[in-house]
Amino acid sequence: MTTIDLGLPGLAGVPAADEPQKAKDYKSDQEVRWCPGCGDYVVLNAVQSFLPSLGLKRENIVFVSGIGCSSRFPYYMNTYGIHSIHGRAPAIATGLATARPDLSVWVVTGDGDALSIGGNHLIHTLRRNVNLKILLFNNRIYGLTKGQYSPTSETGKVTKSTPMGSLDYPFNPVSLALGAEATFVGRALDSDRKGLTEVLRQAAEHRGSALVEIYQNCPIFNDGAFDVLKEPGQAEQRLIPLEHGKPIRFGAEGEYGVVRSGFGALEVAKVEEVGEDALVVHDAHATDPSYAFALSRLSTQDLSHTVTGVFRSVRRETYDDLARAQVAEAREAKPTDLQSLLRGKDTWTVVG
Questions:
Q1: Most-buried pick from 245, 281, 292, 331 (CB within 10 A)?
Q2: Distance CA 148, CA 165 (A)
Q3: How far apart are alpha carbons 137 and 214 in whole angstroms?
Q4: CA–CA separation, 2 and 279 (whole Å)
């Protein structure tokens, strides 16, 4: 059996496809049932077009989802899939990745599913560095339950559940992931096919937990939430793209850049005022997550600035690799004997 080898550490041990595949090979026979204009269509198409490049057997790819509009994703993929329960997809995916190293495990979730009821599972999956990939669709609203504010809705957001405006301060999912010391964190827009595909490619190649936040439009309950990031003349002034080893610079003419500020922070400045040498050169492989976290804080609720690309990509032993090694060590030191375990010294008598 051929497996993916050293060139793609995140996929090591996963069987390779016998012959080249195409996007259509990843499309299931199920009717795609999202609202017309939903950003989920774009992400689905991008994933189906991207996966053939990995060269994996489809039967060794698994998509696990929770509850929400995005969580219908597994139905539309011609791979194995699990439509699980609200917020628990990372926990189920952890079990799969640990028990089956021959699988490429993906989690599809939304801002409500992942960051509300599923917040606890998400942060522990990231800190454990389980070898799985998490696609977090962020439309800043609860879509499936019809328009309540979510953990990423901006302060003051008027919704069915906040008629006078939300009082909550929203999560920045990238900051949250970096706070949990995730080894790979990225962000992309549903409308940026090239940028999304590149972040997905790097996430797939990463060995460990990879979280990719995807800004995605909900045309029914939060239409136009990210339009300002797509408008000519606006996008260039707001989007800050990251490329490892390159100075962080943006604007229609590259007139803006990112520089260091006080107390380890970063800020935006005009290049002509600070000079080329003052610009920060992006280092996605920095061991300490503080730099990547500072980058994540440049992104604002009003989208005046939004950082995209790969914030962090570092190597660290994965939970599932360590767990399998520990089990193997225990078996070698003391072969499993169920009867000895059941009749050993550690017994108790329960008196009713």
A1: 292
A2: 11
A3: 5
A4: 45
Q: Tell me the two tokens of residue 196.
A: 């999304």
- Cα-Cα end-to-end distance for the chain: 56
Nearest to 314 by CA among 104, 173, 174, 129: 129
Query: Could you tell me if residue 164 is left (phi over 0), alpha (psi between -120 and 50 degrees) or otherwise beta?
Result: alpha
- The position carrying tokens 């990251």 is 242
Whole-model pTM? 0.93
Give the pLDDT band of residue 6 (cuts 50, 70, 90). very low
| All domains in the chain, ordered by first residue | 9-225+317-331 (3.40.50.970)
* Alpha carbon distance 88, 118 (integer Å): 6
R_g (Cα) of the chain, nearest Å? 22
φ, ψ dihedrals at 130, nearest 5°? -75, 140
155-164: long-range contacts at Cβ-Cβ below 8 A with a sequence spacing of 24 or more?
155/301, 159/221
Token pair of 8 as six digits: 């793609």
What backbone phi and psi angles, to 5 degrees, belong to 56? -100, 160
State pLDDT tens for residues 123-165.
999 999 999 999 999 999 999 999 999 999 999 999 999 999 9
